[in-house]
């Protein structure tokens, strides 16, 4: 991304992936760079407009410093987040660092780091930070602390330094993220393990799925629900009358969610999803995104044929644009119940194949028009286990 300042063009590109997507830099890099710049200005008394930062990935950044406020005992400045080609809602936000010296020097350098406006606070166990701490992850914490300590040592300062990271638009932006579900309230997390944003939003999402489930596991739950998104969540609450606090949003990543559950030692996972996505599970498709596979009509058509549909009916199903049409046709021909019976048998087979013996998996498939279309034989058992756990924890 380029931006024009007067007649000059400042290039923000720092590299590209093999597929040509542009890298960006993390909120953690922004915070570390802003803290470094603020510390330099505090000791030198000079204004800095660009700061150099070496990221853990080994990519060197030269980042613009914005909105500088200088006072005798403290300096605050900001660095703007740039996400490259990653679809990140934090792109363009200003990340501020305020650095201030203790009134009295102590014997030993110490950096105290905290979050201010727009940086979330942890309210649930299972994250890197303790409950009550600012949601600034381990690597950004280290980056910020090391940069400030380096400046202090170079300037001969041996005392206490307080660093406060803030993101003025963070609280509103956080509503568009998974933070509220993770128990991070009041703002965004300051993230980044490499300091560089790699345009791999799938990895970021699967990491979040793992984290959600990890938090449930550490809170004492060994069974939970998994829903692809809002449709599944709404069905869980509105149609089944179930509190969604024990549900993990798995998006399209059913296979990864099962793998995470096994890795975390979960004992049961009940998947509840719309037929538009979960019909694909009957073909063994564990990533239900349309770019990975779209076998919806093939599954319906083949199972309809097994249920006795003639060639004309199979062709009609194959020409459907969505699953609602296919379900309507099957219902009209009296085939829907038999089709969903064999569909659920195949879903059971593939879920067991992915999960193995240590994790019990089940599924409930629904449509907006018909409600529950089918469920695996153990679905009611898993639902009972999950809700019993909830009562035991209350």
How would you portray this structure in words?
With 394 residues, the protein is an alpha/beta fold. 38% of the residues lie in helices and 23% in strands. The strands form 7 sheets. It has a 5-stranded mixed sheet with strand order 6-7-8-12-9. A hairpin with a 2-residue loop joins strand 6 (66-71) and strand 7 (74-80). Helix 10 (311-318) packs antiparallel against helix 11 (323-332). Mean pLDDT is 91; it is low at 1-11.
Features:
alpha/beta; 13 helices; 23% strand; elongated
Describe the SSE topology:
Elements: E1 2-5, E2 8-11, E3 24-25, H1 27-44, E4 50-54, E5 60-64, E6 66-71, E7 74-80, E8 94-101, E9 110-115, E10 118-119, E11 121-122, H2 138-154, E12 160-166, H3 170-174, H4 179-182, E13 184-185, E14 187-188, E15 196-197, H5 201-218, E16 223-227, H6 230-239, E17 247-249, H7 254-263, E18 268-274, H8 275-278, H9 296-306, H10 311-318, H11 323-332, H12 336-355, E19 360-367, E20 371-375, H13 379-393
Parallel strand pairs: 9-12, 10-14, 16-17, 16-18, 18-19
Antiparallel strand pairs: 1-2, 3-15, 4-5, 6-7, 7-8, 8-12, 11-13, 19-20
Helix pairs in contact: 1-2, 5-7, 9-10, 9-12, 10-11
């Amino acid at each position: 991304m380029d931006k024009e300042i007067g007649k000059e063009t400042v290039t923000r590109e720092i590299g590209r992936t093999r597929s040509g997507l542009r890298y960006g830099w993390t909120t953690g890099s922004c915070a570390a760079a802003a803290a470094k710049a603020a510390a330099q200005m505090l000791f030198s008394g000079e204004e800095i407009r660009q700061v150099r930062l070496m990221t853990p990935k080994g990519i060197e950044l030269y980042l613009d410093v914005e909105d500088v406020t200088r006072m005798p005992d403290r300096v605050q400045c900001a660095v703007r987040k740039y996400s490259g080609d990653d679809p990140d809602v934090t792109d363009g936000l200003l990340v501020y660092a305020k650095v201030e010296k203790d009134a009295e020097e102590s014997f030993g350098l110490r950096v105290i780091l905290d979050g201010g406006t727009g940086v979330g606070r942890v309210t649930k166990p299972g994250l890197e930070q303790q409950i009550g701490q600012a949601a600034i992850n381990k690597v950004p914490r280290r980056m910020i602390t090391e940069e400030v300590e380096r400046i202090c040592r170079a300037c001969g300062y041996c005392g206490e330094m307080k660093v406060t990271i803030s993101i003025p638009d963070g609280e509103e932006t956080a509503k568009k993220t998974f933070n509220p579900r993770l128990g991070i309230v009041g703002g965004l997390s300051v993230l980044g393990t490499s300091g560089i944003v790699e345009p791999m939003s799938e990895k970021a999402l699967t990491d979040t799925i793992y984290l959600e489930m990890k938090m449930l596991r550490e809170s004492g739950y060994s069974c939970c629900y998994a829903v692809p998104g809002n449709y599944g969540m709404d069905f869980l609450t509105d149609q089944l009358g179930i509190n969604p606090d024990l549900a993990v949003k798995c998006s399209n990543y059913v296979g990864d969610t099962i793998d995470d559950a096994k890795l975390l030692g979960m004992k049961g996972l009940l998947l509840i999803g719309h037929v538009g996505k979960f019909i694909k599970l009957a073909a063994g498709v564990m990533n239900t995104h349309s770019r990975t596979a779209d076998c919806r009509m093939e599954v319906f058509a083949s199972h309809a044929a097994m249920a006795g549909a003639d060639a004309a009916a199979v062709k009609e199903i194959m020409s459907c644009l969505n699953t609602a049409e296919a379900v309507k046709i099957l219902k009209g021909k009296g085939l829907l119940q038999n089709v969903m019976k064999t569909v659920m048998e195949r879903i059971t087979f593939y879920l067991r194949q992915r999960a193995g013996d240590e994790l019990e998996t089940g599924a409930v498939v629904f449509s907006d028009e018909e409600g529950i279309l089918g469920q695996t034989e153990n679905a009611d058992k898993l639902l009972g286990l999950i809700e019993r756990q909830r009562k035991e924890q209350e």
